[in-house]
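Predict the 3D structure for this chain.
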Amino acid sequence: MYEVEPGVYYTEDYPGPSIGAVVMPRGILFIDAPLRPEDGVIWKSTLLNRSRGVIHKLLVYLDSHPDRTIGAKAMLCPAIAQRKAAERLSEHGAIFRGQLPESGSEWEKYPETDGLRWSPPDMTYTKRIKFHWGEPTTWLEHHPGPCPGSSWVIVPDRKVVFVGDTALYNAPPFLAYANLPKWLESLEELTGPDFKDFTIISGRGGSVPQPVLEKQYKILKKLLKRIEKLAKKNAPPEAVADLASAILEDFSPEEGEEESHLQRLRHGLYQYYMKHYVSEA
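Done. Predicted structure below.
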């Protein structure tokens, strides 16, 4: 576990996404849940031991991706998500049923996640919500791109922002529910003056330096142009999915991750093209 600034933490100790927390005098804001329930129990206990009898405990879903939501039940506290993320989560049944691996997600590596009970958010917000639990000032803000209900947790007094899948460290993006123009706008904001000198915590990879954000922006912009070029030719979705191998060259997967990352891109490109081009034709 890393303490980025006083009271602001993140960890990559558990399978699944990078998770975080902001500890304030009157409450703890947990940022995403570990994938496995047993890890969620440990994580929560670790943070409670570092607090001083806080009153409020709240879990934030940075988006609706199963990697960061299916282990939430073990956190035993209310959850909040952006309204569109909550709508997406409400489409699921009460029990998580994993399908055959196809999306390159982390949960696909852990068959024990099949059969876990979903924990939908207890409350939602639309644009921004602030937490008045003492210092540091903390708010939750809507920033679409990776999916319609993506959120950031911003701690301006500590110059820290948790951005979920908006920024990925050395890993390809999830594209199935993305909106690439919106994603590019979010990255422009993240690399602009409002977040100068901020520590940016990715939902997959921890702290992300500015050059990584700039590289990701260029990759997504190039990808959007290539997709639009194929769309103008009325190319079939399979042709777009074939871009996956070329895109993977822009990343440096760790040993053993190549196949899942390639599958992530194939699945995401196919779904993205179907949603934004084929279904609108």
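The radius of gyration is 18 Å.
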